[in-house]
Write a structure and sequence with these properties.
Layout lengths: L3 H14 L5 H13 L6 E5 L5 H6 L5 E6 L2 H14 L4 E5 L12 E7 L8 H10 L1 E10 L6 H15 L12 H10 L2 E8 L5 E7 L1
Parallel strand pairs: 1-2, 1-4, 2-3, 4-5
Antiparallel strand pairs: 5-7, 6-7
Helix pairs in contact: 1-4, 5-7
């Protein structure tokens, strides 16, 4: 079973080439995210993948730092940045726990399709809080694969992991459980919604 970085490095180019499955839901997520950002904001995205969302949001903020554990993903993001002539975005190969963010604390932290890929959600949420200014917002949309669902899909995921078709270290939670973890980590919920799929879109403010 490959480690997490190796897994994402290996599939990065294919991942970047895949079309967005739910375009309407994705556009709704970007729209709602923009509504919580301002042109003066300095933003961090964790688990940025190939950088599509970061570059869409860059024109609406002062600066965005997009980070990912995969050096291949961040390389693709940097290529897109140059191709699109975006001047206020940078890509960093790092996890949220690395000392790689001199611009912290940030006005907003974005975590899209990320929290379910972490092995300790509570610790990750606390760390994201550390990277935020007081009153800053955490904006997340991630797969909620807990509750009864996990008993149906966990055996399948385990087989996929064994053959290198899924990353290791996944977390299983429902939308309500994720909201509770955010409150425990010191966040106040601002918005919670679904944009046409099973992944909750949550905006939470650091107290």
């Amino acid at each position: 079973m490959p480690d997490t970085k190796t897994f994402w490095d290996r599939i990065a180019r294919k991942y970047a080439a895949n079309p967005i499955k739910n375009v309407e839901g994705y556009n709704r997520t970007v729209e709602r995210t923009r509504a919580h950002l301002s042109r003066d904001d300095r933003v961090l995205e964790v688990g940025c993948g190939s950088g599509t969302t970061a570059l869409l949001l860059a024109p609406h903020v002062a600066h965005i730092t997009a980070s990912d554990i995969s050096s291949e993903m961040t390389a693709i993001g940097a290529e897109k940045t140059a191709d699109q002539k975006v001047t206020n975005a940078e890509f960093v190969c790092a996890t949220p726990f690395d000392d790689a963010f001199p611009s912290a604390p940030f006005d907003a932290v974005l975590a899209f399709n990320f929290l379910h890929l972490t092995s300790d959600v509570s610790a990750t949420l606390r760390r994201l809080g550390d990277l935020l200014k007081p009153g800053g917002v955490l904006i997340s949309k991630t797969a909620a694969i807990g509750g009864a669902k996990q008993y149906l899909i966990r055996p399948l995921i385990a087989v996929m992991q064994l053959f290198g078709k899924a990353p290791s270290g996944l977390s299983y939670f429902t939308a309500k459980q994720l909201e509770a973890k955010m409150r425990e980590a010191g966040f106040e919920l601002v918005e919670s919604d679904f944009h046409g799929d099973s992944r909750p879109f949550i905006v939470a403010r650091k107290n």
